[in-house]
Structures are given as C-alpha cells and as structure tokens.
Amino acid sequence: TDFANVSTPAITAIKDFFYTTVRDWFAKVTGFELDSYVALSASSYGYTDRLLCHDDELEERLIAFVLYLTPDWTERDGGSLDIFHTDGSVFFICEQHLILNSICFQKELKDKIIASQNSILGYDTVYEVTQ
Fold first, then answer.
1. Domain encompassing residue 81
2. Which of 2, 32, 91, 130 has its CB surrounded by the most CB atoms within 10 Å?
3. CATH code, domain carrying 50
4. What is the per-residue DSSP string for the chain?
5. In what residue span(s) does the Prolyl 3,4-dihydroxylase TPA1/OFD1 N-terminal domain sit (predicted)?
6. What is the mean pLDDT of residues 40-51?
7. What's the pLDDT score for residue 53?
C-alpha cells in the first residue's frame, strides 16, 4: 500500500515521523543531501510469499529501507531479507524503540537478515525476501 494517498491519523503520524525525524537522521548518518520527499509504502507477507531479487534503484532514490514491525520473528518463520553486495553500501540499525542511533556495517558478500521488531534496515543494493 502506497502511503501517499492514505491520511488516517495513524498513517499521518507515521508519515510525519519519517518525513522529519527519520529523514534527518538518515541524512546525518550517511552524509547524503536529501530532499523533502520520502516515499512510504507497506507490505504484508503471508505464508510462502516472497519478493524476487531486485533493486529499489530509482533515479531520485538514494536510500531504500525496511522497518520491521513483526514481534517474535525467528529464522524458522522464513522471510529473511537477503542482501547481495554491489558497489552500494548497506547498513543495519539495530534498535529496540526507533531511537536510531547505532550503525553496524555489513561486510559479507551476501547477508541474510531475520526480522527483529522495531529495527530498520537502510540499503543501496540488490535484495530479495525469501519464503
């Protein structure tokens, strides 16, 4: 669901948070000059769903990100985010309450990231979501 045309109170609060706090934090951490536009959408993956390998590279996009909201997720549940190294950079922010202040650089050729509630992953690379 593209959030551009959704204006419920909850979605509006999420959009406001990402349009200001999160965007400013990404700019500070990456050193990128970001404009005010932030594209937001939501996806829900059910049993056996997957997202094939692709990139999120659009001409105006500098950073793509995933925010995990699923509680108690394990590798056994499937649905890992598999990151493929390209010339881009990958960073994973592991925080419990969206404080968004620590960063850990991924150095593997391919990383398998299991969802962790209230963590956000920002990347400039090729990825897929497994079954």
1. 3-129
2. 91
3. 2.60.120.620
4. -BGGG---HHHHHHHHHIIIIIHHHHHHHH-----S----B-----TT--EEEEE---TT-S-EEEEE--TT--GGG---EEEE--SS-EEEE--SSS-----EE--SSEEEE---TTEEEEESSEEEE--
5. 41-89
6. 81
7. 66
- Return the residue matching tokens 């593209």: 2
Tell me, what's the pLDDT at 3? 87
- Report the pLDDT value the prediction gives residue 8, as an integer from 0 to 100: 94
Using CA atoms, how far apart are residues 2 and 81, in angstroms rounded to an integer? Answer: 20
Count of CB atoms situated within 10 Å of the CB of 101: 9
Q: Give the separation between CA 51 and CA 100, rounded to whole angstroms.
A: 26
> Which tokens is 19 given?
């349009």
C-alpha 57: how far from chain center: 14
Of the CA atoms within 13 Å of residue 14, those in its CB half-sphere come to 15
Cβ(81)–Cβ(113) under 8 Å?
A: yes
Report the domain count for the chain. 1
- How far apart are the C-alpha atoms of 36 and 45, rounded to whole Å? 29
